[in-house]
Amino acid sequence: MTGFLIFTQINIMNTRQQQLDAFSRLLDIMNDLREKCPWDKKQTLESLRHLTIEETYELGDAILNNDLQEVKKELGDLLLHIVFYAKIGSETNDFDIADVCNEICEKLIFRHPHIYGDVVVADEEEVKQNWEKLKLKEGKKSVLEGVPKGLPALVKASRIQDKVKGVGFDWEEPHQVWDKVQEELQELQEEVTSGNRDAIESEFGDVLFSLINYARFLKINPEDALERTNKKFIKRFQYLEGKASEMGKPLSDMTLAEMDVFWEEAKKI
After folding, report:
1. Contacts (Cβ under 8 Å, ≥6 apart) of 58
2. How many CB atoms lie within 10 A of CB 213?
């Protein structure tokens, strides 16, 4: 039975030629759309930008939900955007899809000397450290240049910490990071007592930054963790709303004690 399952799984995967044919088909369709579709003809790099961001978040949701069929669909949407950008680039003779592919291939080869060269690494951490050092050799003046300015603050903090770790600027033990969290919490409480709003905001930011750092030591992605909590809260709150509706009672008319009964029920579901 096991052999049959393995054989079946292998058979449903596409061959390299089928993969290339599918990608070629997408390129042909993109050419048709750009030439014949009024909407596609009007798009620019700038007009597609916000749509690409939306698609990326939709892919992220599908991954967190472990919905593999939805992951496949959202990957297709993102791939379309990549092909679209490359098509626009080709129309101005700046770059095309081959340039995009070759550029990333050369970068991957250069940044993986332990695969394509004679460098020896012991583990994943050494790979990441070499990665950041090689980026500096490419002409970057700071390891933080690769952190996009437009990233959400939580994601940006995580990326900043990950990058400086690559050049050795990091805590040695998790308990040191937790001690820092405790220190920042104490400083926040002191500023709350003082009532200085600017100082409170600054210290609150320090608490969040240190917690994100601690998450990294726990090997937890803070963005994913927070989004899971968001989804959990939404599910429980909507259960609460449903129960209030069944009672024919507006949620705003319920006491906190009444709400808490249904909230505890929702936590058990």
Report:
1. 74, 77
2. 24
Radius of gyration of the chain (CA): 25
Beta carbons of 174 and 213 less than 8 angstroms apart:
no
The pLDDT tens digits of the residues spanning 180-237 come to 999 999 999 999 999 999 999 999 999 999 999 999 999 999 999 999 999 999 999 9
* Tokens describing residue 236: 């429980």
Nearest to 241 by CA among 227, 226, 253, 228: 253
Q: Whole-angstrom Cα distance, residue 266 to residue 243?
A: 10
CB 216, CB 173: distance < 8 Å: no
DSSP for 73-140, please give it: HHHHHHHHHHHHHHHHHHHTTS--HHHHHHHHHHHHHHT-HHHHSS---SSHHHHHHHHHHHHHHTT-
Global pTM?
A: 0.65
Residue appearing with tokens 């090997």: 219
| Contacts of residue 148, Cβ cutoff 8 Å, sequence gap at least 6 | 156
Measured distance CA(209)–CA(165) in Å, rounded? 14
CA 107 to chain centre: 21
The answer to whether the Cα torsion of 102, 104, 110, 116 is positive or negative is negative
Report the alpha-carbon distance of residue 240 to residue 259 in Å, rounded: 7
